[in-house]
Amino acid sequence: MKKVLFLGMIFSLALVAQSVKAQTETQRIDLCVKAAGDVKFLYDYPTQLAAAAVGEKAPVFRQAIALRKGNRYRFTICTDEESAGEGVLQVFDENKPVGSSFNPETGREYQSFDFDCQKTAFYVMFISFKDGKEGSAVGILSHVKTL
Prior knowledge:
The protein is of the alpha+beta class. The protein is 23% helix and 46% strand. The strands form three sheets. A four-stranded antiparallel β-sheet has the order 1-10-3-8, with helices on one face.
């Protein structure tokens, strides 16, 4: 009887630990949505990547997204506090960059950037971490307005 009770307590603790973790991720997403400003939230992209091995390319999260012509979208990146690397969000139309949260020429970082969509198409969003470091972040896609 004691073994059954003990196993039941361990199982209950495991369930509580899972719900706390899920709640923490939800809270991080909510904070990032708020950081995006007064916009209509569309999608979230929680990302966790391992560090790049020596001599290897840095891991990248890649997501195809459909955007419609005549709309302004906002992309927001929020790096977790405990993340070793700083998250970078980039958007490409085919192989042409159309927006980024990091400007390598100036070294300036942006939490959000807006994109005025000029054609309905699939675009590709990348989330990576500077210098190939391990990291955890959330990318947010929001609709700002119809142009």
